[in-house]
Amino acid sequence: MKKRNNNQIVIPPATVRRFYGHGIPGVELDELVGKLIVVEGADGSGRSTQIARLVEWLETSGHATVQVGLKRSTLVSEELERAQNGNILSHTTLSLFYATDFADQLENIIIPALKAGFIVLADRYIYTLMARDMVRGMDEAWLKNVYGIAPVPDAVFYFSIEAEELVQRNLSKNATLDYWESGMDIGLSRDVFDSFVQYQTKMQSAFRKLQKSYGFTIVDGNRSVDDITQELRKKIGAVLAGK
Question: What is the CATH number of the domain that holds 90?
Fold first, then answer.
């Protein structure tokens, strides 16, 4: 980001903004002058820690930021949470529920923020949603069509950590393993620990498959927090500089 003589902050032009597919009717892509930065990874991957550090770094440097993530839509987040707690939805219905959550945030937060020149930090994006659905047997081509409304981010970082390490991190933090992050709904194993390892291993495979299509950056999440922070700052700094 650069400053004019009148101290007005200006974000350098990005590469040509585009949608992954059909996009949203009526949205002028050249008006989306902000930056969209995505951080992906399982619970326990260090994702939230790095996003908090990025927010502090960016805002201290004079950049306005907005954060989005899964189940943060004012339209459906509460209903989605209740549906998950009851485990009452089919895989297709749950997939469309999450897609609605994303679409609402896209229309009411992401697009307006990009128009205003903000840096939008996404604590997971369409890739997690697609990977989850692929592990549950959903058709990849169908998912790409559903999420064709998504703008292509300026940078995407996926934190890759072995499933066994994720087990230890989640138990250390929460003393338990999340039902959905363990894939207990798809019957991989009756044992939650075994199911978690199997599910997260499948998620990693799905992400690597998606990486071939979407070209995001895979970050070794086993390194120190400071090392990862330095890598993210360097690469995001290049994005903000228009490189």
Answer: 3.40.50.300
Has residue 150 been placed in a domain?
A: yes
What is the DSSP pairing of strand 217-220 with strand 155-160? parallel
State how beta strands 119-123 and 65-69 pair.
parallel
Sign of the C-alpha dihedral computed for residues 98, 102, 105 and 107 taken in this order? negative
Concatenating the DSSP letter of every residue in 93-154 gives HHHHHHHHHHHHHIIIIIHHHHHTTPEEEEES-HHHHHHHHHHTT--HHHHHHHGGGSBPPS
Q: Where does the pLDDT of residue 239 fall: very low under 50, low under 70, confident under 90, or very high at 90 and above?
A: very high
Q: Using the CB atoms, write b or e for 82-118: b if 16+ within 10 Å.
A: eebeeeeeeeeebbebbbebbbbbbeebbbebbeebb
Give SS3 for 163. Answer: helix
118 HSE (CA, 13 A, CB side): 17
What digits encode the pLDDT tens for the residues 45-88?
999 999 999 999 999 999 999 999 999 998 888 888 888 877 77
pTM: 0.89
Residue 190 lies in domain:
31-234
CA–CA separation, 26 vs 218, rounded Å? 33
Instruction: Kindly report the length of the chain.
Output: 243
